[in-house]
Amino acid sequence: MFPVEHELTKKLLPGVLLPTLSAVMAVIHPDRADLVGVTGETITTSNFTKLASRLKRVESGRDLLRYKPRIGAETLLAAGRCEPGTLGHMYADFMIRRGFQPQDRPPVRFIRDKESQYVATRCREVHDLLHVLFDCPTTLRGELAIKAIEFTQYGLPAHWGSVYFASGRLSTRERKYLATTVLPWAVRAAGKATNLLSINYEKAFNKPIIELRKIWRIETMSPS
Fold first, then answer.
1. Spatial distance between the Cα atoms of 123 and 147, rounded to a whole number of angstroms
2. I want to staple 219 with a disulfide (CB 3.0 to 4.6 A). Which of 178, 181, 189, 198 is the partner?
3. What is the spatial distance between Cα 27 and Cα 214, in angstroms, rounded to a whole number?
């Protein structure tokens, strides 16, 4: 590669090529957090700044930005020690059954502002907790439902793009069910729920999930 081509590639990669390629792949694989994440980082960076501003309006959000708790291997171990029926126990069961590890999620790489970077990281790390709280499976339909909830709550276009385009992978019957039942539920549930990003879930691990759903106004995908 000639020097001029190399310089052009370096300039285009983060600004044009990377978001375009990641967006295309995220459409094909909406379950790939790294692809959806890169799309969100490179296209909607300003949205994370707005989310940080929203967090600052409530005490719990300000605490998150101040202490910046992370969800990792130790978090999962602590969750697993919680009593059955609690948020922590159900989260640990969800992760262990699927062979998931919190630290496997890709790091945020294309946002320079530290505060916005943390918000983007937090969005990724609580994703699996949303599956647990809303009782959404990790099927394509379940992933698209969570993406719709995240879009309604966070306002990140990359999430709705995944829903809109990836639904094409479903059968005609499944697309109809998604459009008439799943997505209306997801948008309604997200709209009535508290600010999901402002919650310090780790501090609530030892509390019954039924009680937390009432406090946080969570409407599950399957009535519990």
1. 11
2. 189
3. 34
- Phi first, then psi: give them for residue 99, nearest 5 degrees: 70, 25
- Mean pLDDT of all residues in 65-94: 98
Q: Where are the domains of the chain?
A: 45-215
What is the Cα 147 distance to its own chain's centre? Answer: 7
Cβ 158 vs Cβ 26: under 8 Å: yes
Per DSSP, helices labelled H in 99-201 are 114-125, 127-133, 140-154, 157-166, 172-177, 183-192
Q: Is the pLDDT of residue 9 over 90?
A: no
Residues 14-37: tens digit of each pLDDT: 443 334 444 444 444 555 454 444
Which amino acid belongs to residue 22? S
Distance of CA 193 to the CA centre of its chain: 15
Do the Cβ atoms of 122 and 64 come closer than 8 Å?
Answer: yes
106 CB-contact burial (10 Å; exposed 0-12 / middle 13-18 / buried 19+): middle
- Rounded-to-integer distance, Cα 95 and Cα 97, Å: 6
